[in-house]
Amino acid sequence: MIKQFSQTLMAILTMLLFFLVIISCNDFGERVNNTPAANTSDNEKIEDNTYFPSSKTTSSFTCTGAIPANAERCSNSDQGLIENMPIILSNNCDLSIKCNYRCLPGYDLMKHSSGYLLCTESYYSAPSVISVKSDNAVDHSIATVVGSIAWALKVARANDEIKLISNSTYNIHNRLEINADGQTKKISIVGLGINSAQKIFFSTCNSCKNDTAIRIMAGGYSAVQPITLRGINVDANFLASTTVKSEGNSNIVIENSKFENSLYSAIHLRQGTNITLRENFVQNAGVAGNANDCSGSARGINTIPAAGIDVQRSINVSISENSIKRVRTAGIDIGASVDTSVLFNSLTCVGLGGLNYLNTGMAADGVTGYGHRSSSITGPRNWLIAGNSIVNSGNNGIHVSGENIRILVNTIRNIAHYGIAVSDQKSPPDCSFNIVVFGNDVSAATQYAGFNWTTYYLLNFYPASGVRDGVVTNNIEAGLVKFGKNSADGATLRAVYHHSTEVLPNPNYLSIENNRTCIP
């Protein structure tokens, strides 16, 4: 009886031990998702968020046979390197060893009714997070290096998030390309934020002076498949022309990120639609200098613009709550764009190529956008420029031209020319009308003695430009609001209050020079 009981107990223990061994060796045993694959009733999803731990590898074992479709071979050196990479077990290998292959991103491990394990494209699974460490690669711009940022960009499927998880430097030697394969897929690159020590750094580069650190390749991304850069910090190290560049793309979101030390414009976007730039920090575009002042030395070619944010010939643009500091030309350039808002940005030490600073021969403004007649995008600008702070500009505070522009409640200090200029100096000039300038607080530094800041003849500085149907009201200024010459048609200037104690023209002055009628 005791012997029979012992045999029975031994059999039970043996069976339990067998199952424990099976479970301990099976990396897919922790979580099983039995949701059937789309249009595949005889497939069973095994696991899509597990990587095989390095402790289970055998250095002396080499798997033979062809690599299964949609999979890649696992080596001892890269086990556990990238999170959220499922593993495939090949029938060509000993299943007790396992981890011979893993599914590529965008494919889930499926158990077919025939008993084979397949990497099958998943149409129902949630987006994956591909976590990338800074020490995964010496050069994160090489797509063939497993674990690099470029590799993650190459293998990511639509809706994936590439997450930079190390609070340290990710070195690149060439540009990073988003959707380099020409596909249009939603991808997010997410970092640790502006205040972290993390950054993508151009450490060395042989041929980047006409290139960029990050290039969003052409794709025409849809509203449900945008490109998002969030919480990343990019340092071009004055080796690349720009930090982020895109031409002809739509639905781009760049937020809570830092961009610095570019030879030319830091953020350079052209001919896009639905562009959102918010809560970014930009500094040292075309200027290398100290952190707390407007001094420094020019970098790059002086005749090439070096703006903080440069979004031109684009539609439906939102630029808000960005901090821009120390740039050689414009703080924000929205030339030839339409349906654009520039709200609550802080611009400090902009237009440093101007006479009073570096004197490189190319001055620019805090916020600028004029000369639209030569652009491919015509019609009303429909601009709202409001709530911005512009301090220390080497040219004008705000200089714009066009139709339907509202300039509201901006604070402008210490500028080398006009606080607000509505005019065009290009030929043929813009005819500006339906302009509202309201509630702005403008004052100039007395150190700029080369200009008379308190007389209204400065309202006609640029010749051959026109303004009509303009309203300037309830502004606080020191003679620094300028409408262009040939502007008389319907323009009014009223309720203007002055900082200066000098004798000024009547603040209820109702008309600007009544010259020629402005003809669009």
- Number of helical elements: 2
Mean pLDDT over the residues? 70
Distance linking N and C termini: 110 Å
Task: Note poorly predicted spans.
Answer: 16-65, 74-100, 445-465, 485-520
What fraction, in percent, of the residue positions are helical? under 10%
What structural category do the secondary elements indicate?
Answer: mainly beta
**Cα-atom radius of gyration:** 30 Å
Sheet with most strands: 13 strands, parallel
Number of domains: 3
Percent of residues in beta strands? 35-45%
Sum up the overall morphology in one term.
Answer: elongated
How many E strands? 41
Query: How are the strands of the biggest sheet laid out side by side?
Result: 7-8-11-14-17-20-25-28-31-34-37-39-41
